[in-house]
Design goal:
Oligomer: single chain
Number of domains: 5
Number of helices: 33
Structural class: alpha/beta
GO molecular function: ATP binding; methionine-tRNA ligase activity; RNA binding
InterPro entries: aa-tRNA-synth_I_CS (IPR001412), Anticodon_Met (IPR041872), Glutathione-S-Trfase_C-like (IPR010987), Glutathione-S-Trfase_C_sf (IPR036282), GST_C (IPR004046), MARS_N (IPR041598), Met-tRNA_ligase_1 (IPR023458), Met-tRNA_synth (IPR014758)
Family: Belongs to the class-I aminoacyl-tRNA synthetase family.
Radius of gyration: 30 Å
Subcellular location: Cytoplasm
EC number: 6.1.1.10
CATH architecture of the largest domain: 3-Layer(aba) Sandwich
């Protein structure tokens, strides 16, 4: 492999240091900045790494990660988070500071102001690790990347800030590593910060695009350089306003496919009814699908989004035993819990159903009979694990042991989470019943199997066509192909249980369908419960595009088993076109665990006092798209305070306040200059990229486009200073009007783009700016929707700062040890004849009402106290918002409407 770097390029420091540390054999070539690396690229792309297969890596962080991983080391989630922070936050701030100092000639202290916040964050984080390095262990790739980002500003170690002790010690330690010293000296060459002057002068802009994270490669959706034609076209589209814009689709009930329309059916994996979903479950399916569904509606596509609880199987039976209820009562109870959680997270299902319905039985049995008639089912006697102590055959998820393939010691009875291979429970080494921990015995039982080998040819033909045309995530493609590559085997579709869909075949009437045959059919039966015209969605593959959302462990059942059943039924079923799978979201440094009280679960998020939209934003910001990611309280606080409060919220609030303060609440006249037209074109380019990314269901990357627009807006306001112009000449006042008008229209566009991610915040912005309903359709055009003379409403801050004390308190609360344990897989004493005591829902509800009444009273007194002391308005507004949230919670607990009654306007006499 060959590493190519250019003189004076600050990014060269990190890749050279990484090469020295972890890729000693790399061939290093040095070029002038203007030299092209790859002939077909219009712009130079340095540094670059040419791999042995001829491909190139151009992203510096990706090159560093490649060296690190190639040396046999493992890159942790925390390391990935640091590198993403460096790419999104630290690097743009460093380049801006370097540019201000070296090119603009600002004093060093003044130039470094833009990076102080990042350095303080580094110092505080290093103080917490109490380690020489960022990850509380050995040197990581994150240490090198972050160090190299800051190094150009501190080539002289004596200039390091004395007050940031932990940062100073860490920086000095990295700087003294031989490989890092050599890398820095080869770029700086004794010239200090001036070594980077030529690079900065020739770069297109002082700020690097924050959306380019460490994991991105060359991307066909990346924004291109703006041409004069682009700018002219954007300006023309702006001037037309909503004149040629399409109007929002009028809702129809029920939603049915329409001839000639783009008909989108979206499913998110059906959650097990026996537990409470945690944040990883929510981002892995329902929230990701919700973003895409909301986006599709904004594009005026005919969209149906459905989900429901998966209610059959051993897990439900066991939970019922634990709580002393019947399986149906458990399903009713937890279906209501799931429904309430998704309502709070503002998940916009068109229909949320369940699988314990007559439609489920009818459709599942029909598909079964069609497979039976076409000879796609086999009968065989199988050996199963039976727990003599629990007196039952063990369902796959209730037996655990050592994987026969990779030796992972927590493999389940159906699949190993580590290697992903399918397992028959009897193949497990050292199996244990997860309920009582006893060793089960092997017993024989007669079962029915889906003949997957017989269906393999038609499945392969369908996959070849679908994978070439549909948007499948890379992990979904890999998992599916590995299943096919390893060869398909007959798959058992029945179980020795009572709680499930009955098998309609003589000799098997004492059995039920296995959950992974039965559960996906729930997608069909849920639509059948929504409308008796369900076949227009499910037997209409020519007109319907089907999107499945799930975590990666669900992939084979949606990409192989369920499609095989539908293809084998030969009834013109709609089969998945686009399979969207996430990796796993972990909690801090470990996994979510209800039994150990580790992590935030859906019913707990509301109790934190953090609004649902903040949860939505952060989960989508760290969505595990390409690799596992982790929820971090510190990072949640950082993203809320920097991206939402200081970036997005600051821009929208300033734009609206300027209209009120300078123009009496009316959007002023606008006369666009060339710089305004360029900004309009930049925003249009971000909008175009946003659409491209979301069409490919790259949800996390598309969110960056929203934040980029608000960054453009903040910079635009800062450079043009309308608060000064408004006090000047008539021309300057006109300039203030143009800047304010463009800015408030950017805020209006953001209110539309934000709807899939933060629907409540988006609605608030639209209420404040009185954005016309007709603007709520997304195209690639950035139009002036708030014309001159448009009256806006009252403007107030959108976000509240999260304080460190608040976050530390929540970290401790959800860090484990505060719960007694309620995991049915571990806690249930299945053999006991006395059912476990259940919580009285009436008593529990009354106690919650009393607690909330006290909280409302206490918060009300606090607000009155602040008002009497004439505290700052922003502080009072924040506490009033908390009071209103508590009142809504109280209303819900009392069974009342959470919305306050309409108030009559008070006229002054």
């Amino acid at each position: 492999m060959k590493l190519i770097v250019s003189e004076g390029n600050p990014h060269g420091i990190k890749v050279l240091a990484a090469a020295g540390l972890w890729a000693g054999g790399a061939d290093i070539q040095r070029l002038q900045q203007e030299e092209k690396v790859v002939p077909f690229l219009a712009q130079p792309k340095l540094p670059a790494l040419q791999l042995d297969n001829g491909n190139f890596l151009f992203i510096p962080n990706a090159i560093c990660s490649y060296f690190f991983l190639s040396s046999g080391k493992e890159q942790s989630d925390l390391s990935n988070q640091w590198m993403e922070w460096e790419a999104a936050e630290l690097q743009p701030a460093s380049i801006a500071a370097l540019y201000a100092h070296v090119v603009q000639g600002k004093k060093r202290e003044e130039a470094l102001q833009s990076i102080q916040k990042s350095l303080h964050h580094l110092d505080q984080s290093l103080a917490k690790t109490k380690s020489t390095y960022l990850l509380n262990g050995s040197l990581s790739v994150a240490d090198v990347v972050v160090w190299a980002s800051v190094y150009p500003l501190y080539t002289d170690l004596s200039s390091l800030p004395e007050d940031l002790t932990h940062f100073k010690n860490w920086f000095t330690n990295i700087s003294q590593l031989e490989e890092c010293q050599k890398a820095a000296e080869s770029i700086v060459r004794g010239q200090g910060a001036s070594a980077f002057k030529l690079y900065l002068q020739k770069s297109p802009a002082p700020l690097l695009p924050s959306e380019k994270t460490a994991c991105n490669e060359e991307d066909d959706t990346a924004p291109q350089a703006l041409s004069e034609e682009d700018i002219a076209a954007a300006a023309e589209a702006w001037s037309k306003g909503l004149a040629d814009a399409p109007r929002p689709r009028k809702p129809q009930h029920p939603i049915l496919p329409v001839d000639g329309d783009k008909n989108i059916m979206i499913t998110s994996a059906l959650p097990y009814v026996n537990n409470v979903p945690h944040l990883g479950n929510i981002i892995g399916s329902v929230l990701s699908a919700d973003v895409f569904a909301r986006y599709c509606r904004l594009r005026n596509w005919n969209t149906l989004y459905l989900c429901g609880t998966d209610e059959y199987g051993t897990a439900t039976e066991t939970k019922a035993m634990e709580e002393g209820l019947t399986p149906q009562q458990i399903c009713d109870k937890y279906n209501a819990i799931h429904t309430a959680i998704y309502q709070w997270f503002n998940i916009s299902f068109d229909y949320f159903g369940r699988t314990t319905t007559q439609q489920q039985t009818t459709i599942a049995q029909d598909i079964f009979n069609r497979l039976l008639q076409r000879d796609f089912l086999l009968t065989d006697t199988v050996e199963q694990l039976r727990c003599e102590k629990c007196e039952r055959f063990l369902a796959d998820r209730f037996v655990e042991g050592i994987c026969p393939f990779c030796k992972y010691d927590e493999a389940r009875g159906d699949q190993c989470d580590k290697c992903g291979k399918l397992i028959n429970a009897v193949e497990l080494k050292s199996p244990q019943c997860k309920v009582c921990k006893e060793t089960p015995v092997i017993k024989s039982s007669k079962h029915l199997f889906l003949d997957l080998p017989k269906l393999e040819e038609r499945l392969q033909k369908w996959l070849d066509k679908t994978l070439s045309a549909g948007d499948w995530t890379s992990n979904a493609r890999y998992i599916t192909r590995s299943w096919i590559r390893d060869g398909l085997k007959p798959r058992c579709i029945t179980r020795d249980l009572k709680w499930g869909t009955p098998v309609p075949l003589d000799g098997f009437t004492d059995k039920v369908f296995y959950v992974w045959f039965d559960a996906p059919i729930g997608y069909i039966s849920i639509v059948a419960n929504y409308t008796n015209q369900w076949e227009k969605w499910w037997k209409n593959p020519q007109q319907v595009q089907l999107y499945n959302f799930m975590a990666k462990d669900n992939v084979p059942f949606h990409s192989v088993i369920f499609p095989a059943c539908l293809l084998g039924a030969e009834d013109n079923y709609t089969v998945v076109n686009h399979l969207i799978a996430t990796e796993y979201l972990n909690y801090e440094d470990g996994k979510f665990s209800k039994s150990r009280g580790v992590g935030v679960f859906g019913d707990m998020a509301q109790e934190t006092g953090i609004p649902a939209d903040i949860w939505r934003f952060y989960l989508l910001y760290v969505r595990p798209e390409g690799q596992d990611s982790a929820f971090s309280w510190s990072d949640l606080m950082l993203k809320n305070n920097s991206e939402l409060l200081n970036n997005l919220g600051n821009f929208v609030n300033r734009a609206g306040m300027f209209v009120h303060k300078f123009f009496n609440g009316c959007v002023p006249e606008m006369e666009l200059l060339s710089e305004d037209k360029r900004l309009v074109a930049q925003v249009a380019a971000e909008l175009h990229q946003y659409n491209q990314l979301l069409e490919k269901v790259r949800i996390r990357d598309a969110l960056r486009c929203i934040l980029n627009i608000s960054r453009h807006g903040n910079q635009y306001i800062q450079v043009n200073e309308p608060w000064k112009c408004i006090k000047g000449t008539k021309e300057e006042q006109k300039r203030a009007g143009t800047v304010t008008g463009v800015a408030v229209n950017m805020a209006a566009l953001l209110s539309v783009m934000l709807q899939p991610y933060m629907p409540t915040v988006a609605g608030t912005i639209q209420e404040q700016l009185l954005v016309p309903h007709e603007a709520n359709v997304l195209t690639d055009l950035f139009c002036c929707v708030l014309q001159s003379g448009h009256q806006i409403g009252a403007v107030s801050p959108l976000f509240q700062k999260l304080e460190n004390d608040q976050i530390e308190s929540l970290r401790k609360r959800f860090g484990g040890g505060q719960l007694n344990g309620d995991n049915p897989e571990i806690q249930v004493k299945a053999q006991s004849k006395v059912p476990a005591p259940s919580v009285d829902p009436i008593t529990d509800s009354l106690e919650k009402v009393k607690r909330l009444q006290l909280d409302v009273e206490k918060q009300g007194n606090h607000v009155r106290d602040l008002k009497s002391k004439k505290a700052e308005k922003s502080v009072i507004d924040g506490e009033v918002q908390k009071l209103l949230t508590l009142k809504k919670e109280l209303a819900l607990a009392e069974g009342k409407s959470p919305d306050p009654p309409a108030q009559k306007s008070k006229k002054k006499k």
